[in-house]
Amino acid sequence: MDTLKRLQAGWGYPTALLCVYGFFSTLKPLEPFLIPYLTGPDKNLTTEQVTNEIFPVWTYSYLVILLPVFLLTDYLRYKPVIVFQCANLLVTTALLLWAEGMAAIQAMQFFYGVVTASEVAYFSYIYSVVDPQHYRKATSYCRSIQLLGYTMGSVLGQVLVSTSLMSYYNILIMTLVFTAVALATSLLLPMPQRSMFFHRRLSRAATTKPSAASTPPNTTEEEEEKDTGGSRPPETGTRECEVTPERVDASSQRSARGCLEVIRHLWRDCLQCYSRSLLCWSIWWALATCGYNQIFNYVQVLWEHVQPSQNFTIYNGGVEALSSLFGAASAYAIGFTQVNWTTWGEVALGSCSALGALALFLMTFTGSIWVCYAGYIIFKSLYMLLITIAMFQIAAELPMERYALIFGVNTFGALVCQTVLTAVVVDSRGLGLDIIPQFIIYGSYFSSIAAIFLLRGLYIQVRGCRDHAHNCPDPTQVPAQDTNTDRR
Fold first, then answer.
1. Distance between CA atoms of 417 and 412, rounded to whole angstroms?
2. What is the Cβ-side half-sphere exposure of residue 225, based on CA atoms within 13 angstroms?
3. Whole-model pTM?
4. Do residues 260 and 387 lie in contact, with contact meaning Cβ atoms separated by under 8 Å?
5. In 76-198, which ranges are continuous DSSP H helix?
6. Are 137 and 117 in contact, with CB atoms under 8 Å apart?
């Protein structure tokens, strides 16, 4: 028992449980084949219904739910939100399996929006139960296991579909079992005693509160309340159990003041975090993530359009697995490069965004499914490369709690842009464009991002060269002071 308690008290136990949860929650063999499943005989929906009426529900629900979930995640101390996320994932899979009709599938997309909005709890949890010296390892393990789960799911789905070992229905039954394992694992996670914002002061006071014997005799009640974060221990005697309306009102007022104080603190932190350099990386993060989410959502529709045959989905899972592995390899290689990203970052953002736009145009206008697959692998690898650089640059200049805040704000900005793009371009109540005009707009969107950052990066380089030339003296000229000295 003592060995088990020591094991649970260390950082490895919650990290291992979180890795198991991350693996099984991302193990989704049917995801690369979602469009053929929805438009096939199982659900009998049209491509236009899926594209213009069903998928936009995910974007809208994600945007509406993200902000309250972000605040509740910290207030509830992460674990309840992780369990809530997995429960919604179970509901999503069940609806995808048994629901019929467009309204039910739209409800499925709403629950999936709740799942993605709760993703912030996954990585925030580890920072509340792990010591700071283990942050890097724990984050690396959790990110790697998620990538492994997604890749294994894509490969498994590819094998099952290509060999006809299982139908789409049976693959979803298997996914339901994987999700149930993830839900059971989430229930075993230890409950954190602190959080980054709401419970930080209270936990600090609990660990530093002096005992009655060590309390200085001249300490006042106000000072004691200040030291304990505004919460005094109950007095002994009959008053310990006494609950009056005045105490309830005072407690609720302190809770409301604490919530408002946290929100004001978050707002001040936001204003302080977005310096000029971080603002540039964050703007690219929001804009590029918006475009990437749109490509990821609708690329299967494009593949179906390029090769509308019975076997057009035969390599979807393999392509998703390859694109994830290439993206991870390129992101890993960044750690071994010696580049001054402060100087060359915007040029890199502009250049790689231009290559991504070129890959999107290639996917749009090609008649070959293989070229379309290759363009998607290039685009996704470039995005994962650049988003890794952006995350590294932002995290290098911020403490962990501020990084989590900026992560949430950037994600919210990306969702606002994505909602506007979806409402105007995709939604049937907007333009309701077909898939080819959609991807032309997406390619133009990334071309605009590339032009903005590339021009700004080149301007910074030219200005830096001019400043360097202006500050460096001409070696062919003799300084006036030296000449006067020689004349003397």
1. 9
2. 6
3. 0.78
4. no
5. 79-98, 102-117, 120-129, 135-162, 168-188
6. no
